[in-house]
């Protein structure tokens, strides 16, 4: 096997060194026998092969080493976290690609720069304390702070530990930096969502408590209103009869008129109580209403009064309609909605005795029309805000405490919501929302007019059946109508009335609605099935004037609210029997 010539300078150098080392031990080949030379050559050949094999192994492990070094570098550079090696002064000694990318800088430009340069100024102390802890404890320490990518801050988590050298001296630190902005943002969002939810639950609970409280107050008020109506009706009926009997006795009549006017005041309170407690809206009467128009016309019709009053007292009020934007119509009873606006406006003026600004704004939100009415008045404390819609709650010397309860009842019946917001001494805002209507304005849903019915043509026989569980009212009515020339039968219960209707023929049934066992509604339904139907007049302390009763097969010819004017009643009776 021939010796290959040295391949390059390094090989030649190696060969020279080898020859030098070989010299002292040179085997005296010339003294060897041929057999020994052959053996030696054989040995040398084997040795050469062994060396070549070793060299091959060495090359292989060098390739492997190179590969794993590359792998390590890839892992290091392209790790999803930034690796920073800092010297003991906090200057960057080494950084991987990911780390440089995080800081938005070229890798080489970061070397020998202090890492603190990339910490948000306000968090510099956090970083200082973190490094101090690492150098003191020698343990792995973590902290969260804000760093800078260019001039954009981001949330980072730092995980640092000291790297001891061979003599166990610590002069380098490894910091692993993770961008945790997404996590922090998610946490912030979650917190916001939680807060919104908590707030909504609070508001909802408050609304629920409010509506529960008002519901039970409604039940109570209905009872009181009904009872009072009956009492007032009796007193009023008696007074009217006394007045008729004592014509010409002016002094007595004057006294009686005074009592009557108090009875009327009482009746007005009862009417307003009923407005609050009335649960069902007669949706047949609903029309499409343009709230903006309604606001403007309410202000136009009521403004002159306030203006004159304010000018007289030298007080300045401003009405701000800048926020009134065009919105969809809502379905409602225009008269009732006007009453809502007037009640709120009245309260606002009451709250601004020294003048101020009353502002209106409208907007649409998730299928609802929202109306806000704000004043710059005295505002309300917490307690007033929670009681504002309670019937009879007032903080005013001459207040009735019924305005806002009527507003509440009306808004509810219109399928809407109402809330009050206020700050003491700063003013109050009433926020109302109603479902937006699909219909365009001006289309009346109802095709009949209130109070007008089409009676059948019937002969006049003057037979009137009075049905009322309040015997006193029945008696008052009986004597009055008898006095007016009618043939009157009075019965104080529904069952008896049905018996009488079977036996006798009446021209008119004058009926109370709310009676135990058989109610006025039941009697109406029996009449509906009769071949010869008497006229029906309803006298009630229950409902507001309406001739349409839920689930009823027949309409009343007229409805009179208790307490009633005997003259009005007579008028209605005469009218209905004339047809
Ligand atoms: N705009 C407002 N500013 C301050 N307080 C108000 C306002 N609206 C209503 N209130 C409070 O709510 C109470 C109830 O109002 P309301 O039912 O209209 O009855 P009244 O006006 O007869 O007192 C008022 O007495 C007042 O304390
Ligand atoms: Mg009021």
Automatic annotation (TrEMBL):
Q: Which reaction does it catalyse?
A: ATP + protein L-histidine = ADP + protein N-phospho-L-histidine
What's an example GO BP annotation here?
A: regulation of DNA-templated transcription
Recorded hits in InterPro entries, A to Z, give:
CheY-like_superfamily (IPR011006), HATPase_C_sf (IPR036890), HATPase_dom (IPR003594), His_kinase_dom (IPR005467), HisK_dim/P_dom (IPR003661), HisK_dim/P_sf (IPR036097), PAS (IPR000014), PAS-like_dom_sf (IPR035965)
Tell me the PROSITE patterns matching this sequence.
HIS_KIN (PS50109), RESPONSE_REGULATORY (PS50110)
| UniProt KW keywords | ATP-binding, Coiled coil, Kinase, Nucleotide-binding, Phosphoprotein, Transferase, Two-component regulatory system
Q: What is its EC number?
A: 2.7.13.3
Q: Which residues carry this modification: 4-aspartylphosphate?
A: 512
- Every Response regulatory domain range: 463-577
Q: Which domain of life does the protein's organism represent?
A: Bacteria
- Which residues fall in a coiled-coil region? 32-71
**UniProt-listed Pfam families:** HATPase_c, PAS, Response_reg
Q: Which SUPFAM superfamilies match?
A: ATPase domain of HSP90 chaperone/DNA topoisomerase II/histidine kinase, CheY-like, Homodimeric domain of signal transducing histidine kinase, PYP-like sensor domain (PAS domain)
A GO molecular function assigned to this protein is:
ATP binding
Q: Enumerate the spans annotated as Histidine kinase domain.
A: 223-438
Q: What is the protein named? A: histidine kinase
Q: Which organism is it from?
A: Kuenenia stuttgartiensis
Taxonomic lineage of the native organism: Bacteria, Pseudomonadati, Planctomycetota, Candidatus Brocadiia, Candidatus Brocadiales
Q: Give the encoding gene's name.
A: atoS
């Amino acid at each position: 096997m021939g010796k290959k010539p040295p391949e390059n300078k390094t090989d030649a150098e190696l060969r020279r060194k080898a020859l030098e080392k070989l010299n002292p031990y040179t085997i005296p080949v010339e003294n060897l026998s041929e057999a020994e030379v052959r053996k030696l050559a054989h040995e040398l050949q084997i040795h050469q092969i062994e060396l070549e094999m070793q060299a091959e192994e060495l090359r292989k492990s060098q390739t492997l080493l190179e590969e794993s070094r590359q792998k390590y570098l890839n892992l290091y550079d392209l790790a999803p976290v930034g690796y920073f090696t800092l010297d003991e002064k906090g200057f960057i000694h080494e950084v991987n690609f990911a780390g440089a990318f995080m800081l938005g800088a070229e890798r080489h430009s970061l070397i020998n720069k202090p890492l603190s340069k990339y910490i948000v100024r306000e968090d510099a102390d956090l970083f200082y304390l973190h490094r101090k802890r690492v150098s003191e404890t020698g343990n792995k320490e973590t902290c969260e702070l804000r760093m800078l990518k260019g001039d954009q801050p981001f949330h980072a988590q730092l995980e640092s530990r000291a790297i001891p050298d061979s003599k166990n001296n610590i002069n380098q630190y490894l910091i692993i930096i993770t961008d945790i902005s997404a996590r922090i943002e998610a946490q912030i969002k979650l917190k916001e969502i939680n807060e919104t939810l908590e707030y909504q639950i609070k508001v909802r609970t408050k609304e629920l408590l409010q509506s529960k409280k008002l519901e039970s107050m409604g039940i109570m008020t209905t009872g009181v209103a009904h009872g009072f109506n009956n009492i007032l009706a009796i007193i009023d009926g008696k007074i009217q009869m006394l007045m008729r009997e004592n014509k010409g006795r002016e002094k007595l009549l004057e006294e009686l008129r005074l009592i009557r006017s108090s009875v009327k005041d009482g009746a007005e309170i009862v009417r307003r109580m009923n407005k609050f407690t009335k649960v069902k809206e007669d949706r047949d009467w609903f029309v499409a209403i343009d709230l903006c128009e309604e606001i403007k016309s309410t202000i136009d019709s009521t403004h002159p009064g306030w203006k004159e009053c304010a000018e007289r007292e030298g007080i300045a009020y401003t009405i701000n309609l800048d926020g009134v934007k065009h919105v969809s119509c809502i379905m409602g009873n225009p008269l009732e909605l006007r009453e809502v606006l007037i009640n709120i406006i009245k309260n606002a003026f009451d709250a601004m005795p020294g003048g101020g600004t009353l502002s209106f704004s409208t907007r649409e939100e998730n299928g609802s029309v929202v109306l806000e009415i704000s004043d710059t008045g005295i505002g309300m404390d917490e307690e007033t805000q929670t009681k504002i819609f309670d019937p009879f709650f007032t903080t005013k010397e001459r207040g009735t405490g019924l305005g806002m309860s009527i507003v509440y009842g009306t808004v509810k019946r219109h399928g809407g919501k109402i809330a009050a917001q206020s700050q003491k001494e700063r003013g109050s805002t009433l926020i109302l929302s109603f479902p937006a209507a699909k219909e365009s304005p001006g289309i009346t849903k109802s095709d009949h007019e209130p109070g007008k019915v089409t009676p059948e043509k019937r002969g006049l026989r003057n037979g009137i059946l009075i049905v009322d569980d309040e015997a006193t009212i029945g008696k008052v009515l009986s004597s009055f109508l008898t006095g007016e020339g009618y043939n009157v039968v009075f019965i104080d219960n529904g069952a008896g009335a049905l018996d009488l209707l079977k036996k006798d023929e009446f021209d008119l049934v004058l009926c109370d609605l709310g009676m135990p066992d058989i109610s006025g509604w039941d009697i109406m339904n029996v009449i509906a099935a009769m071949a010869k139907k008497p006229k029906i007049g309803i006298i009630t302390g229950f409902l507001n004037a309406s001739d349409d009763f839920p689930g009823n097969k027949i309409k009343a010819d007229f409805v009179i609210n208790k307490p009633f004017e005997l003259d009005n009643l007579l008028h209605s009776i005469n009218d209905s029997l004339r047809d």
